UniProtKB/TrEMBL annotation:
This is Ubiquinone biosynthesis O-methyltransferase. The keyword Acetylation does not apply. O-methyltransferase that catalyzes the 2 O-methylation steps in the ubiquinone biosynthetic pathway. It is an enzyme of class 2 (transferase). It comes from Thiorhodococcus mannitoliphagus. The gene is ubiG. The lineage of its organism: Bacteria, Pseudomonadati, Pseudomonadota, Gammaproteobacteria, Chromatiales.
Length: 258
């Protein structure tokens, strides 16, 4: 199947300090399972429905769009960092956004490209790191940093690059796992070793970042618009909001327009 103009993989040598080679190898091994809703990424498929509703509501409010519209983000430039197989990128494209998805795993990019073509969606997938986009001077109306923070090395460098990719007045969504004993018990021991909802080794406690640290590293020109905890019911596997951010959390921050 021919590859569309916006689906070409850029030939880059990914050596950014925030990239962990072990994480790259791990997700390379799982790349072919991204769109198997009963496979190892089923929690991400469930979570995606939940987080898309959150992004849709809050981004529409920031932009003055009608969240109930079929394509509320027509013409909005969105960057999906760590897009994986394209689950979130495709959801945003269906809402009308001009989506760029970046990955540091070549197999994931190829999986995402192929699925977008099958789905008839125009998404620009690139094998690239955030620092490469910074060097290009790229900026976006919204940057989606979902389930990525907990996988990077050198978090300060990573977030310093991410913040530059948000245009003045634009927003960043961040979803991650807190660094608490409860998070270790539930998200790592429980989800990976006891319930086996995720493959073992998906998360490493030392890489988990508290929301306060993330907000501090983004700097004072980012204003917090919303924050929430996220929980999952182990019986029905449904996600819901909670005030408690002790395990999973989501943040919405807006960059100063000046």
């Amino acid at each position: 199947m021919p590859v569309g103009r916006r689906s070409l993989v850029s030939a880059v040598h990914l050596t950014a300090p925030s990239i962990d080679p072990e994480e790259v190898a791990y997700f390379e091994r799982l790349a072919h399972r991204w769109w198997d809703v009963e496979g190892p990424f089923w929690p991400l498929h469930k979570l995606n429905i939940f987080r898309v509703d959150y992004i849709r509501e809050h981004l529409a409010a920031v932009l003055g769009r009608d969240a109930a519209a079929e394509r509320p983000f027509e013409g909005v430039k969105i960057l999906d960092i760590g897009c994986g197989g394209g689950i979130l990128s495709e959801s945003m494209a269906r809402l009308g956004a001009d989506v760029t998805g970046i990955e540091i795993t070549d197999k994931n990019v190829k999986v995402a490209q192929m699925h977008a073509q099958w789905s008839g969606l125009d998404v620009a997938y690139r094998l690239a790191s955030v620092d490469e986009l910074v060097r290009e001077g790229a900026t976006f109306d919204a940057v989606l940093n979902m389930e990525v923070v907990e996988h990077v090395e050198h978090l300060p460098d990573f977030l310093a690059d991410c913040r530059q990719l948000v245009r003045p007045g634009g927003v960043m969504f961040i979803a991650s796992i807190n660094r608490t004993l409860a998070a270790w018990l539930i998200a790592i021991l429980g989800a990976e070793y006891l319930l086996r909802w995720l493959p073992r080794g998906t998360h490493h406690y030392r890489k988990l970042a508290p929301p306060a640290q993330v907000k501090r590293l983004l700097g004072g020109d980012f204003q917090l618009l919303d924050e929430t905890g996220v929980r999952v019911n182990p019986l029905n596997r449904k996600f819901s909001f909670t005030r408690w951010q002790g395990v999973n959390y989501m943040l919405l921050l807006q960059r100063s327009a000046s």
